[in-house]
Amino acid sequence: MIIRTDTGQPIDTADLSPEERHVIQKLLAWMTLVDSVDQFRQKKLQALAAGWNDSGPIRETRALTRIIQHLEKQVRKRLKTPAGRGSFKC
Questions:
Q1: What is the pLDDT along the chain (90 residues), one digit of tens a residue?
Q2: Is residue 90 part of a domain?
């Protein structure tokens, strides 16, 4: 999957480790479910700590950090819309 950040920079998830892609998958789901940015950050920390199938902590690489920052901005935008729910561009 190619994730294009708000700056237009593409990030190919094929370049991430399987563990990092697993965290991204979890966070993509949580983007639509959380009620606050703080809750999204908490879910991020939980996902990084648990790893893949509770394999243990995952180190946040530069690419993963950029993707997570982009997802967090998308959560912020969703929460600002009147209905609080909307579509996301990744």
A1: 899 988 888 999 899 999 999 999 999 999 999 999 999 999 999 999 988 887 889 998 999 999 999 999 999 999 998 765 555 555
A2: no
Tally the domains of the chain: 1
Token pair recorded at residue 2: 């190619």
> Which range marks the domain in which residue 24 is found?
2-80
Which residues have C-beta within 8 Å of that of residue 62, sequence separation ≥ 6? none
pTM (2 d.p.) = 0.83
